[in-house]
Amino acid sequence: MKPFDYSRLDSPDALSPLGAGKFLAGGTNLIDLMKHEIETPDALVDVTRAGMKEISQQPDGSIRIGSQITNTDLAANSDVRQNYPVLSEALLWGATQQLRNKATTGGNFLQRTRCQYFYDTARACNKRDPGSGCDAMKGLNRFHAILGASSSCIAVHPSDMAVAMAALDAEVLTRKVDGVERRIPASELHRLPGDAPERDHVLENGELIMAVDLPASPPRLQSYRKIRDRSSYAFAVVSAAVALDLDDGRMSNVRIALGGVAHKPWRASRAETALEGQMPSREMFLKAMKEEMSEAQGHGHNDFKIDLLPRVVAGVLRDLTAPERNGDRT
Amino acid sequence: MNEMTNKIIGTPLDRVDGPAKVTGQATYTADYRPTGKTAEGFIVEAAAAPGKIRKIDTQAAEASDGVIAVLTHHNAPKQNPYGTPEEAGRFTQSHAMLESDHVRHVGDPVALVIAETLEQARHAAKLVRVEVETSEGTFDQFAADVEIAKPDSLDGADEVDTSTGDFEKEFAASDVTVEASYFTGAQHSAAMEPHATVAEWDGDELTVHMAIQIVAPGLKAFANTLGIEADKVRILSPFVGGGFGSKLGVHNDAILAALGAKVTGRPVRVVQTRRNVFSNAPHRSKHRQDLKIGADASGKLKAISHDSLAAMARNYPFAEAPASPTRASYFAPAIKTTHRVVEADIPRVDSMRAPGEAIGTLTFETAIDEIAEQCGIDPVEFRLQNDADRDPNSGAPLADRRLSECIREGAKKFGWDGRVTPGRRREGNKLIGRGMASAIRPNFLVPAEAEVVLSANGQLRVRLDMTDIGTGTYTILTQVAAETLAIPVDQITVELGDSHFPASSGSGGSFGAASCGSAVFDACGKLSKLLQQRLSGKGIAANAISVEGDRVRAGGNDYALADLVDDGALTVKGAVDPSEFDHGEEEYSYGALFSEVEVDVDSGEIRVRRLLGAFDAGRILNEKTARSQLMGGMIFGIGGALLEESTMDTRYGSFMNRDFAEYHIAVNRDVPELEVHMLEGFSEKSNPLGSKGIGELGICGTGPAIANAIYEATGCRVRKFPIHMEDLLQHLPQG
Asked: How would you classify residue A263: left for phi > 0, otherwise alpha for psi between -120 and 50, otherwise beta?
């Protein structure tokens, strides 16, 4: 680990430029990366004592989650469990109890890819070392992207939570060094790799995630499904966060976000559009996903995700819209 | 005999070292604190190989805070050449490190940075600049243009190749045949405790605290590497956090620590990082196994051939024997087996968790399931009707053959009710399947010595250089001593893992309990006899004695131990001589595994719902630790079938999933409630205790029982392991 300066932020009001520094929250990913010197910040600004630890209902009915709320506390929150179960489920499908106890809401968004070439400093990785190349492209890429990748990077974002946030149309509240605050849709917080895969997200240097807002009146039917080899402590091969309503048996307010398939939580807007207003059926689900996957591209080991993902999404939609589950609503 | 102790062997005595372990009092290697101030070593790994180090720049590292020394091939102490003397085995040959500019494999140590703190050493290690001029390497034994060779020897087997009967003739005359290639992935032992060493020199004497399974050969490895006498080396390994074969010998951290301590004049600790372990500790090669099996229409096996192809790390002779179970499980008139290797520029390949049988039963028992199905015979019935009444390969008689008993017992406990048509059993969105397989594992007895010291106060110390790698050795040796001498458990202290103690078998090959238990049994028996003689010498008739407190009981009276021991203590040595049990009969432990799996129709995700094993390991020495051993093996079996694989980028010869987030060991949620049934037995031909090896038995057969269940669930026969969702995806019904 490269030696670094350490300081604490007392309040978001005291933000100053980070330069080559980093914010430190739970540290469950950053500290690991620093040990490997994949991350080499010259300063850490600890934000865990700068407040931002409230979950509160806003006047408009939305829920505001402080960025320093732990994954454990967020998953257990009764409002979240009742009205945003897809978020609670996604959190509980992630990591392990010990990690969830430390990991924060803000930090979870900003965890970095688990691409094995990113982790191995002896191999080429444009995300770790811009311009060095991408060894994953023709290497071991079973876990890699099938949507929105570029010739410079096929890494995927590993978060489960962020996928559920994208499906819920959550908004990320940030504050910049100059004190200006902005709201960023959760599905637009992360970027596609393009020719700058070293940039995971759109935040500026020193811009701090303060909170996340969950909009009021989310769709009533929600589910998170994570597909993985090992039944705990494993990153998603693919995952799907789905939320929708049934209106006289027809699907409405359909939101689908996908994990493990792209450099960011992938909002499946083509599929959503195709499903909106339709009667649920397997044919319909698969047709919608076929549209969503029209530009999907595998890289060898991950080709199977192109077949897997529609099946998984169709399965989630089947379960959510099943008459026995929804009783008199259908 | 004492009521308390005369039947203690076999009882589920709690681990005697349990309280020390759960309160942090058990000193594992990395916990050891020498009196001198310890310096910390960190390994710098080669990024590319094979090749030569063209340039190594240590200036920045040397100038970094806290750095004491940076060892490279330029300044490392002189050692004997790697792999010498050639006639010595791989556990005793020179394991020279940093000996030249030659880089064997990706991850090969090219420098050791020694600093005041681990953090300083680790950071400075990143500052070492290494240029390697690479030459063309072999990383993949399945690639074209590789040189396939017959190894000089095979692990755990007498013969590399075997042939009985006329395979071609019998196979051609078979009514039903199976012919297929099976692939198993590379794996790492992945012990919880990484390989670790603390080395310190006192003049020309070297003391090494290290995590090692077999102590005595380690002394020779240090001697052969460093050019010193073995009696100048002391190894201490009182607690080992799992070995699974990867700590049988001396590994890179150990030699590097010894070199570092020599150069710095300070104790040096080298603890491999988890990433280090994947290239600086041994692993299991990936294998291709080609199987051909023929049977007649009634389901009688006629011909079996099993050809294995592995990678062998260059200049490190080890070849695994996957065809071992094929030679011993079922009778057939013709059985032919071969093992071939390709020398590769990869990290060391060595024993791992039931070498041979773990991956051999995985493939062979899958193939047996295939031919049973083709014959239209239930897999349980098929195995029973092909059971052997003599060794299928050598024709030698079999000692305590109880495979069929295990199969019958397992089938009964599991409620085996025959096969259903594959893909037909469904509950909601899950396809359900059941499968079974046989387990077999050779039983070994190896030389071991032990020393027992009885003090006048009644305290008995049992000493040998045996290790407890988490298996329960401290506990079972306590039980053997307690029952043999008839002395209460709380008067016994077992001391292990010190090379100053008598040389034992060490832990490996499931032979530790039998070998060391027999040596302790012998020592305690001799001690008991000696006490009887001394009582007789005093005119006291003593046919049976027991010890309680500081008194010896005999013939209804008791006598002070102080009057019977010299100088306050009586020391007796015992041993086991395997040649006394060389009776020409083949010995194995046996088992039968039954599993039920579910496969998700949407994703192909596989989960094990039930796993049951019925085992024959002779006499059980401790019901609780034996059960734990079998359960641990079964969990490894789940890993072998579904999870564990070290994936290599064969462009570079580099393992890529080098941490526990990516190398998937089964977690609790992957493991159903395990059902373990142990047959009662006493294998009198095996050793004086009547026990047989148990440590690796649970692994054998578990993987194929799961794979065969997956077949029944889906109708899809997967011939590569671990089996993943994508292997099934195309064969699943619509969700």
From this structure: alpha
